[in-house]
Design brief:
With 238 residues, this protein is α/β, with parallel strands linked by helices. The protein has two domains: 191 residues, 2-enoyl-CoA Hydratase, Chain A, domain 1 (Alpha-Beta Complex), CATH 3.90.226; 38 residues, no CATH class. It is 44% helix and 16% strand. It contains ten helices and nine strands. A six-stranded mixed beta sheet has the order 1-2-3-4-6-9, sandwiched between helices. Strands 5-7-8 form a three-stranded mixed beta sheet. Strand 2, helix 1 and strand 3 form a beta-alpha-beta unit. Helix 3 packs across helix 5. The longest helix has 20 residues. The radius of gyration is 18 Å and the shape is globular.
Length: 238
């Protein structure tokens, strides 16, 4: 039986591929266990600088497998108290979501937990929690508004309408659109650009950007200036 998540690495990049194409990569407990294990492996591997998450087949991820709702533990699949938001937050390395086809509800949340998204021309996104009557739990209500603003997040989540790749680019949900056959190669190119920079300063800059998520603009700028003064004292002053 094939693993529900495939793990490979090349050129300092870990590639995690959701691998239930017959179910459009729908989420069950087994997939989550393998995804979280793969994320932890990439996080701890000092040779890995960037993570790419993609889906095998016609969809990125169609959301929770409804057949698993009554049987699987989807919120603590490994029994360690860590769910999707925890696992992704604990990964210090940039995570690129390479979205092909549908990213729906839980699959949309999975995409939103990535640092940024590259989409194929046939990508589409929908938050259907309100339509199917399932409570969001992997960050949808916060991460979507962080990505596109609160007003647009309300429209998407309250109407449950699908948006295509062009609309996703227009509202800032995805960074780029590429042809389907170029999706993984483009994600790898971006990962290589990340791998080529100073790794310590890259992580510092990433941390400073994310600091704004939990504090005010003024405090975030103060933190950046504090770090710069320490840098000057250490590296530039005689």
């Amino acid at each position: 039986m094939d693993s529900p998540v495939l793990y490979s690495s090349e050129n300092h990049t870990a590639i995690l591929t959701l691998n239930r194409p017959e179910r459009r990569n729908a989420i069950n407990q087994d997939l989550l266990i393998h995804l979280y294990n793969a994320m932890d492996t990439a996080s701890k591997d000092e040779d890995i600088s960037t993570v790419i998450i993609a889906g095998n087949g016609k969809s990125f991820c169609s959301g929770i497998d409804l057949a698993a709702l009554s049987t699987d533990d989807l919120f603590d699949p490994r029994g360690d108290g860590r769910d999707m938001v925890d696992v992704f937050k604990d990964c210090p390395k940039p995570i690129i979501g390479a979205v092909n086809g549908h990213a729906i509800t839980g699959g949309f949340e999975l995409a939103l937990n990535c640092d940024f998204l590259i989409a194929s021309e046939n990508a589409s996104f929908a938050d259907t929690h309100a339509r199917v009557g399932i409570h969001p739990g992997w960050g949808m209500t916060q991460l979507l508004q962080q990505a596109v603003g609160q007003r647009m997040a309300k429209q998407l989540s309250l109407t449950c309408e699908f948006i295509n790749a062009d609309k996703a680019l227009e509202i800032g949900l995805v960074n780029e659109i590429v042809p389907e056959e170029r999706l993984i190669d483009r994600a790898k190119e971006i990962a290589q650009s990340i791998a080529s920079v100073n790794p310590q300063m890259m992580m510092t800059v990433k941390t400073l950007i994310e600091h704004r998520n939990t504090t005010s603009f003024e405090e975030a700028v103060k933190e950046e200036r504090k770090g710069f003064r320490a840098f000057v004292d250490l590296h530039l002053k005689p």
